[in-house]
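ok, trying the design again with the full structure, not the truncated one.
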């Protein structure tokens, strides 16, 4: 980064009360934020600053940068003030928004009627709670049939099917979660049903804007005398009619405007064919006629009023349903002392805002908000464009009404509408606060910036959009201040693929992308190395593929790239239930529950779990015509009579099924899942596959899913399989890993936000957002909630004015967010940007379509044309269409967007065998020296004696053998935990096992006797096990400082199973650098902000010295596993001896971790 620019200095040093920084992509906002924090810390103290952002990674980066800045300043000045701030930095309020809000609620738990040790429900648990409460809600309303419920059922057609009612309630409930004082918002929007003028006023604004743009086109044509006098006489009446209607809309005279429209008839249009200017006019004339056919203009104010009156009782009932649904959910959350982040956010808001009026946005702060405003010198919020309404009000309240706020963001990068991010917050703040613009981009070549400026200055210069792209928003070249680039027409390249239908086009685009990657790497395309500030050859790791719809298309690209020998990794958000390995495990559970299910049975047999071939399964299936499971039983009977290997495999498989069915009746489902994973070696088998890390992580996530079910819900295997199906239907998502290394990265445009790459290839550009079913109740912040009207039989549906308004506004917002998504995608590239598309209307013979209908106005691309565009390439080409060098002709190889900023446009056709024909590659694509090294690799023979997988108990035994010259007796003296199925003996190990099970599943804050009874009823303890428990011993443990860790931790993981990789040297000190899998289970892992506390229970009678000697290494292995799993240190590890009634810190006896 060069010296601070003038704009950056303003952002760092400004003392204005209330600042908003509009920071363009690549403008160095994080560095500026860190510098401002360090300066303010010197003046006011780091403890007086709040700096929050959305992700832990971003918060950690800010804190690390502040630390670096403070250290450098301390090295230069040795100031004691800076040193003090450095020591306080770890506890400073530089964190995520969720963390800051949660800590505030914890500190004020008593006033909210909460317990201070509350935690959070995960997505799966939330789904289950809300599903159960939805059933209770509808049962309650159908039983009582309160006022308005019949009307609501009639509106939604729900008398025969609850689906529409459930959708309306859950949709509105989900929407209001981010609205401050949402009950007031519901009442406010419900009141709009009594004010038809509110809705006709919004509609008047819509048509006034749209028709005004058309009127400008009429005036433009008339002023330039495009038509002859006789034709002008035909056009003038239309122009006067248009002007009159616009005036009525401006005056909010809705019914008068509708009457004028109904009375007017368009005459024959003058001939326009062959003249682009005349066709430009005809385009707008057609648009006028299309606008005037809008459904809204068919509804008078009297009709709209009647619709609102008819809908009011049902909508009032819908609001009461949502409130009751919230109460039911909150009742469960309070009972289990776990909440959603949304609910905690509402608690936090109630602490700082006493009352709020949604219409005027006026609020009254609480005394706590006033004291927080006095305490904090500045409240800094990063990525402010992604805040929701609740967060905006919260931070305004604790920053003296915004006078102490320092917000940073870029409204053009607001792409999380599905999370209820509201760009209006940022836009409004730019009018209320002192605005500073960071427009210099230090990331990208000037050619890329000029291209982006050209595209978005055309797309976002419209009164219809919230986001604008004015002079202050233009990206300014900052990279040339520290590096002199050579500019080329190839810096920005557009490849238009003649790929045919979409399903074929996606595959073809993937091959074009593969070709481009091989060409760039093979020819050694030069990119800037930021670490050396010099050019170097591009590598695979420098290249990213950005896709609009990665979930469905990324696998196609991945497959093509692997076929082309291009190393690739895919980062995607998807459900764990999308993975093959988890589906196999789910199939196994289905078979255990009911073996007479042919498809799950076949899936398990053909998987890595048992490894049957298709021929073997066919041979078994063809043996008889019975059920498949009976065929397996019959075939396995032959195992003792023949040497048929398939029969042996079948017999073994059948024994496993019977065994797992037997134990499933007596153990919780999480233990059953773990038994399947480990006793079939399925976890090990999938770990050994290519990309086995992903597969293993997915299986461990599923185990966590099962464990969550076991802890939070009672139920057998059948209940669990039903729970799985519900979770599948609701698609809980998890962020999958993105591997480091020399891979091309494939990701969605959303995932690319905040990242940068030397080369970006934006593909899949003709994809459009999925056309989901329109919900029965449309929701929009301005309109509220709107539905259609059904006839008395509930068969026919008639739209309403406010529903059409909501549809229009939602479509506009979706389209605008798509443009912002394109902005994010185009600003990720540093050195080269490639756009690949297959849009049908972008071929040379059809390009005139864009130049004609995309004709520019003084404000840029016509909104009325672009409102029909939904694809990213459509936005690109509608903007390029009005450039003079490309108008009417697509054959220009380069288009000048600036003095040094050309782009290249190529048409890529395919042959019948779907092979790209235009590319010729030169030079090596792979590192030959690296390949030689791989070929000459010799396996380390020291690993021959090391097992691929080992349990903690076995590894500890092995260590004792080595330390005691192989004395097996000493090794065998170590305690080995008894498995869940014991032989009925009531000895010490039986007592130990029972104690472990109680501490694993009991509510440790609950009554001991009540918890015993509950655990017996849920089959987590047998009556025999419960009878040997020692209440005084357990209560003594819970009162100790070690036991209090379980009660006071931020999070407690009990009986936490793990499989992690560890150095092979743990087993054999002579082993080389290889690794092995370590498997085990930790009794309790207590998470605090500064690390974990590990607790292991021991019930055997040993002295303190014996316990340390026997088990310190075991706890060391647990600590290694915990740190690998959670990337957080284990600060203390304790053995709790129930015999000694004492906690023993074994951390000092750990080997050095290296």
């Amino acid at each position: 980064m060069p010296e601070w620019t003038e704009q950056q200095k303003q952002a760092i040093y400004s003392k204005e009360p209330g600042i908003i920084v509009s920071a363009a992509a690549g403008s160095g906002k994080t560095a500026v934020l860190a510098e401002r924090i360090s300066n303010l810390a010197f003046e006011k103290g780091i403890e007086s600053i709040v700096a929050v952002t959305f992700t832990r990674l971003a918060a950690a980066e800010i804190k690390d940068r502040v630390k670096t800045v403070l250290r450098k300043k301390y090295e230069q000045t040795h100031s004691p003030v800076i040193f003090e701030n450095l020591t306080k930095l770890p506890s400073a309020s530089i964190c995520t928004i969720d963390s800051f809000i949660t800590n505030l609620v914890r500190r004020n738990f008593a006033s909210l009627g909460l317990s201070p040790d509350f935690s959070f429900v995960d997505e799966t648990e939330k789904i289950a709670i809300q599903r159960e409460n939805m059933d209770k809600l509808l049962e309650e309303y159908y039983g009582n049939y309160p006022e308005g419920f019949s009307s609501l059922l009639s509106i939604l057609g729900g008398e025969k099917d609850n689906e529409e009612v459930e959708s309306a309630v859950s949709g509105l409930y989900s929407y209001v979660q981010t609205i401050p004082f949402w009950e007031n918002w519901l009442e406010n929007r419900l009141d709009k049903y009594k004010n038809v003028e509110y809705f006709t006023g919004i509609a008047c604004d819509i048509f006034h804007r749209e028709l005004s743009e058309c009127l400008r086109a009429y005036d433009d044509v008339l002023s330039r005398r495009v038509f002859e006098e006789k034709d002008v006489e035909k056009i003038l009446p239309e122009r006067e009619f248009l002007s009159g209607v616009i005036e009525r809309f401006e005056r909010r005279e809705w019914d008068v405007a509708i009457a004028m429209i109904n009375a007017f008839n368009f005459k024959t249009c003058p001939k326009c064919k062959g003249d682009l200017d005349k066709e430009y006019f005809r385009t707008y004339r057609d648009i006028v006629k299309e606008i005037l056919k809008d459904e809204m203009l068919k509804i008078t104010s009297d009709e709209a009023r009647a619709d609102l009156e008819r809908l009011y009782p049902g909508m009032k009932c819908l609001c009461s349903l949502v409130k009751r649904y919230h109460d039911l959910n909150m009742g469960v959350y309070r009972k289990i002392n776990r909440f959603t982040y949304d609910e905690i956010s509402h608690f936090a808001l109630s602490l700082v805002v006493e009352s709020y009026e949604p219409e005027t946005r006026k609020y009254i702060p609480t005394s706590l908000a006033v004291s927080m405003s006095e305490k904090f010198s500045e409240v800094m919020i990063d990525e402010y464009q992604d805040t929701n309404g609740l967060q905006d009000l919260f931070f305004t309240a604790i920053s003296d009404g915004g006078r102490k706020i320092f917000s940073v963001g870029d409204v053009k990068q607001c792409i999380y509408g599905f999370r209820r991010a509201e760009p209006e917050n940022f836009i409004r703040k730019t009018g209320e606060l002192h605005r500073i613009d960071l427009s210099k981009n230090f990331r990208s070549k000037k050619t890329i910036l000029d291209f982006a400026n050209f595209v978005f200055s055309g797309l976002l210069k419209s009164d219809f959009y919230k986001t604008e792209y004015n002079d202050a928003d233009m990206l300014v070249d900052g990279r040339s201040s520290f590096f002199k680039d050579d500019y080329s027409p190839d810096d920005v390249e557009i490849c238009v693929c003649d790929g045919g239908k979409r399903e074929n086009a996606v595959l073809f685009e993937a091959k074009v992308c593969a070709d481009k990657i091989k060409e760039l790497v093979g020819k050694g395309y030069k990119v800037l190395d930021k670490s050396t500030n010099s050019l170097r050859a591009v590598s695979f790791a420098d290249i990213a593929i950005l896709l609009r719809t990665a979930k469905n298309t990324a696998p196609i690209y991945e497959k093509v790239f692997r076929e082309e020998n291009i190393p690739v990794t895919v980062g995607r958000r998807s459900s764990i239930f999308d993975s093959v390995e988890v589906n196999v495990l789910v199939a196994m559970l289905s078979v255990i529950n009911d073996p007479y299910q042919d498809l799950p049975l076949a899936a398990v047999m053909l998987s890595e779990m048992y490894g049957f071939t298709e021929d073997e399964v066919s041979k078994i299936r063809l043996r008889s015509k019975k059920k498949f499971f009976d065929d397996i039983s019959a075939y396995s009977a032959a195992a003792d009579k023949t040497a048929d290997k398939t029969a042996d495999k079948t017999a073994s498989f059948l024994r496993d099924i019977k065994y797992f069915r037997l134990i499933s009746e007596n153990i919780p489902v999480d233990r059953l899942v773990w038994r399947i994973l480990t006793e079939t070696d399925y976890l090990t088998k999938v770990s050994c596959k290519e990309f086995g890390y992903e597969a293993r992580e997915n299986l461990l996530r599923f185990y966590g899913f099962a464990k969550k079910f076991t802890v939070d819900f009672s139920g057998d295997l059948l209940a669990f399989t039903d729970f799985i199906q519900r979770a599948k239907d609701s698609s809980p998502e998890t962020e999958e890993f993105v591997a480091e290394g020399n891979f091309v990265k494939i990701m969605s445009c959303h995932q690319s936000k905040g990242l940068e790459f030397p080369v970006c290839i934006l593909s899949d550009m003709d994809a459009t957002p999925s056309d989901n079913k329109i919900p029965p109740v449309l929701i929009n912040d301005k309109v509220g909630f709107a539905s259609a009207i059904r006839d008395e039989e509930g068969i026919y549906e008639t739209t309403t004015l406010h529903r059409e308004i909501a549809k229009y506004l939602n479509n506009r917002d979706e389209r605008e967010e798509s443009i912002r998504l394109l902005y994010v995608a185009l600003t990720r590239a540093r050195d080269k940007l490639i756009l690949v598309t297959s849009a049908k209307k972008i071929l040379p013979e059809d390009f005139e379509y864009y130049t004609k209908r995309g004709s520019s106005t003084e404000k840029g691309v016509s909104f009325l044309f672009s409102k029909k565009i939904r694809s990213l390439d459509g936005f690109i080409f509608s903007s390029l269409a009005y450039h003079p060098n490309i108008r009417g002709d697509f054959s220009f190889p380069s288009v000048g967007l600036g003095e040094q900023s050309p782009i290249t446009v190529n048409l890529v056709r395919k042959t019948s065998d779907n092979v790209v024909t235009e590319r010729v590659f030169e030079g090596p694509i792979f590192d030959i020296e690296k390949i030689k090294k791989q070929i000459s690799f010799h396996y380390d023979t020291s690993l021959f004696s090391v097992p691929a997988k080992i349990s903690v108990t076995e590894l500890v035994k092995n260590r004792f053998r080595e330390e005691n010259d192989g004395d097996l007796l000493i090794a065998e003296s170590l305690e080995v935990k008894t498995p869940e199925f014991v032989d009925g003996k009531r000895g010490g190990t039986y007592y130990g096992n029972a104690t472990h099970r109680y501490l694993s599943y009991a509510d440790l804050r609950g009554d001991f006797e009540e918890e015993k009874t509950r655990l017996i009823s849920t089959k987590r303890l047998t009556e025999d096990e419960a009878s040997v428990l020692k209440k005084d011993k357990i209560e003594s443990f819970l009162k100790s400082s070690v036991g209090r860790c379980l009660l006071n931790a931020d999070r407690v993981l009990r009986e936490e199973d793990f499989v992690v990789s560890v150095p092979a040297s743990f087993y054999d000190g002579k082993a080389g650098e290889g690794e092995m899998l370590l498997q085990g289970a930790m009794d309790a892992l207590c998470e605090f902000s500064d690390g974990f506390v590990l607790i292991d229970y021991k019930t055997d009678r040993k002295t303190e010295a014996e316990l340390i000697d026997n088990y310190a290494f075991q706890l060391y292995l647990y600590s290694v596993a915990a740190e690998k799993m959670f990337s957080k240190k284990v600060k203390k590890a304790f053995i709790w001896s129930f015999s000694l009634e004492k906690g023993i810190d074994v951390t000092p006896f750990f080997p050095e971790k290296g």
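Keeping the full-length input from now on. Residues 301-336 form the longest helix (36 residues).
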